[in-house]
Design a protein that fits this description.
Layout (H helix, E strand, L loop, with lengths): L1 H37 L17 E2 L7 H6 L3 E4 L2 E3 L2 H10 L5 E5 L10 E2 L2 E2 L8 H14 L3 E5 L20 H4 L12 H20 L7 E4 L6 E2 L2 E2 L9 H4 L8 H4 L1 H30 L7 E7 L5 H13 L4 E8 L10 H15 L4 E6 L24 H16 L3 E6 L13 E3 L3 E4 L1 H14 L1
């Protein structure tokens, strides 16, 4: 009996040791993860990735500003006023803007309704090729470079929404599909079409007289590009259609290798085909393409450092001529990182070191007050930056100033004039007007002082 009791006690001790060991291991792993998500150690001797360009301050009229002016809105900043898109862009140039921006879908012309495949689509008419060419003409007139984004989607795509292209409005390009729907094309067949499309769009933009040295291919291309996307049917990889979309946000954390082998390696060749087409347009028009750069951008709200670095390295290794790595950085949006400024600094420096290219913030915003409407969930406060005009201006300034010495190529404050942005806009809105907030006034005053 005594022997049995001792054996029982020994088993309990062994089990206790095992449990304690597991707890210690979990605690250590948890501590490492927590530290990785919340701690950034500054390197005072940091050497950024090489970059031949001046810092790009991409303050640009948004795709939505036209609607505001159609409703007789007037934008004002200090003594400046704008009653149309050209005057608004001139306001941004006065505030230090160095380039404009045009997001372009494969939809060629706007339509009277917003229906796409029988469903209401709020982006149906904002990103057509026609509106992109209007912005290109404006950029040429104002003598400011244009940064076009070739989405490779019919009307829209981002991290949440995957959409394939549709080339039916381009008869000569559509003919290259030989009667096959996009989802039945092989990768090689897709790339023939994508190259022709890249050449056509680039030629149309360059014919406006616009100067383009930076092209962005894809919009928040975390989960695909041009129909080779999670959740879409494609002969390139039949696995993608059946992938459970409810699980997609786990992939950047636990499935980076899966994305590399099932999505990104194909996207690299697609993006490279578009880039080849764009370069051939320069050659055909007799324009020197030696300064032309290519990028794509991903959302960072669910991306880890490893995931971001692997994505861009995969694109480079598989043929996409990546010159700049783009990211969306929304500090107030939900995400896996405890401190979003830590996330920003870690991702930028890791891409610099491990991919060897500078980083461009392709989308950025931060609230100056209560966040309501569709973006109500984007209400996280970053430590040290309250949701006030002062906090909004301060985080924008600090992101830029740190970035200039750590491999950041530039920043685009996304849709600074978008009424639907609410407090994340650079303007306060009344029934018929918009008044610049501190974030834009600071830029105006700073740029005016530098000119003097």
């Amino acid at each position: 009996m005594l022997k049995q009791a001792k054996s029982f006690l020994q088993r309990i001790k062994t089990r206790t040791k095992i449990i304690l060991s597991i707890v210690v291991v979990i605690a250590i792993i948890g501590g490492v993860i927590l530290g990785n998500l919340s701690i950034y150690v500054e390197n005072k001797n940091y050497v950024p990735a090489p970059n031949s360009e001046k810092f790009r301050t991409a303050l640009s009229v948004s795709p939505f500003s036209g609607s505001a002016f159609d409703n007789a809105y007037t934008y004002s900043a200090d003594k400046l006023t704008a009653k149309n898109r050209e005057e608004l862009e001139q306001m941004y140039i006065t505030a230090g803007a160095t380039e404009m921006y045009a997001r372009i879908a494969t939809k060629r012309y706007p339509t009277k309704d917003n229906l796409v495949n029988g469903e209401e689509d709020s982006n149906a008419n904002y990103h057509t090729l026609q509106q992109g060419l209007e912005l290109a003409k404006m950029a040429a007139k104002l003598n400011i470079p244009l940064n076009p984004e070739i989405m490779g989607a019919y009307t829209y795509m981002d991290m949440d929404r995957q959409q394939a292209p549709n080339f039916e409005e381009y008869p000569e390009i559509y003919a290259l599909q030989n009667g096959k729907p996009w989802e039945e094309l092989t990768l090689d067949e897709m790339n023939v079409v994508l190259k022709a499309y890249g050449k056509f769009v680039a030629a149309e933009i360059l014919k406006t007289g616009a100067t383009v040295e930076n092209w962005n291919i894809g919009n928040e291309a975390n989960f695909g590009f041009a129909g080779v996307n999670l959740g879409l049917k494609t002969a390139v990889n039949p696995k993608l259609e059946s992938f459970p979309m409810s699980m997609r946000y786990m992939l950047p954390i636990f499935g980076t290798s899966w994305l590399k082998n099932n999505v990104w390696k194909y996207n690299a060749l697609q993006m490279a085909a578009v880039a080849d087409g764009i370069k051939s347009a320069y050659a055909e028009l007799g324009i020197n393409p030696s300064n032309v750069k290519f990028s794509t951008h991903i959302a960072t709200v669910v991306s880890t450092v490893h995931n971001a670095v692997t994505c861009f390295n995969t694109l480079k290794e598989n043929g996409f001529p990546l010159s700049v790595a783009g990211i969306s950085f929304y500090p107030s949006a939900p995400g896996i990182y405890i401190d979003k400024m830590v996330m920003y600094k870690k991702i930028v420096t890791a891409i610099n070191k491990q991919v060897g290219v500078p980083v461009f913030i392709a989308e950025f915003s931060y609230p100056s007050g209560k966040v309501e409407g569709p973006f109500a969930g984007w209400s996280k406060t970053v430590k040290g930056y309250p949701h006030t005009e002062e906090g909004q201006a301060a985080i924008y300034h600090d992101v830029i100033e740190w970035g200039k010495t750590h491999g950041l190529a530039g920043i685009r404050y996304w849709a600074p004039d978008f009424i639907g942005w609410g407090s994340m806009s650079m303007f306060d809105y009344t029934d018929k007007g918009a008044t610049a907030k501190k974030i834009l006034l600071d830029s105006l005053q700073s740029n005016t002082a530098e000119e003097k």
